[in-house]
Amino acid sequence: GQNIDQPTEMTATEGAIVQINCTYQTSGFNGLFWYQQHAGEAPTFLSYNVLDGLEEKGRFSSFLSRSKGYSYLLLKELQMKDSASYLCAVINTGGFKTIFGAGTRLFVKA
Amino acid sequence: NAGVTQTPKFRILKIGQSMTLQCTQDMNHNYMYWYRQDPGMGLKLIYYSVGAGITDKGEVPNGYNVSRSTTEDFPLRLELAAPSQTSVYFCASSASGTEGGTQYFGPGTRLLVL
After folding, report:
1. What is the distance in angstroms between the CA of the first residue and the CA of the last residue of chain A?
2. How confident is the prediction along chain B (114 residues), in pLDDT tens digits per residue?
3. Do B50 and A96 touch (CB under 8 A)?
4. How many angstroms separate the Cα of A65 from the Cα of each of A41, A94, A110, B61?
5. Taking a contact as any Cβ pair under 8 Å apart, which residues of chain B between 53 and 82 contact chain A?
6. Do B101 and A95 touch (CB under 8 A)?
7. Residue (of B59, B103, B29) closest to A31 by Cα position
8. Nearest CB partner across the interface for A103, out of B42, B101, B106
9. Rg over CA atoms, chain B
10. Which of A63, A95, B34, B91 is the 20 to 30 A CA-CA neighbour of B73?
């Protein structure tokens, strides 16, 4: 079967660092995405990993270990506007069908 | 460049009614998708298309139909609406697989079936 697991909710303090984990079991793998979704809005692209290792993009970094079926999204210097859901998604071997996790709701408090 | 547009933004349907959710993209993307998102849940793929004239079922296709007569448009048809179809519907498009597989989402259509 295909499954993507993420924590349901996390809370962190403004200015801090938070790590959101994602584990996956899919029938094929051609890359992993992280999307950000603010309440009542559409998801927007954050990062893409296809090879093992860390991809850094400003305050956001994403890590992938294909052998462990594991990824994390690291958010540094948290801001109130980072309060949102973060969706982990795996693109299958065909290269276009994407399986989404249920998302992690992050609450950033002052 | 408008990206992905969806209409309507919000709709209330009675049980048994039908409607079409419109989706248009102006990025010349081959791949288009319809998802539904129930409260507090992730996105579930309803249907997808890899190009004009080609469509296929996703995880939850029952109760829906699609067509793709042009690259730009990918309408989703609901026949005989049921309360279980109350959800937010997102249309998305992408250029291709792998790195081009980044999906760009429309603003969503909120559907309430009573």
Report:
1. 41
2. 689 999 999 999 999 999 999 999 999 999 999 999 998 788 999 999 999 999 999 989 999 999 999 999 999 999 999 999 999 999 999 887 555 578 999 999 999 999
3. yes
4. 30, 20, 33, 32
5. 58
6. yes
7. B103
8. B42
9. 13
10. A95
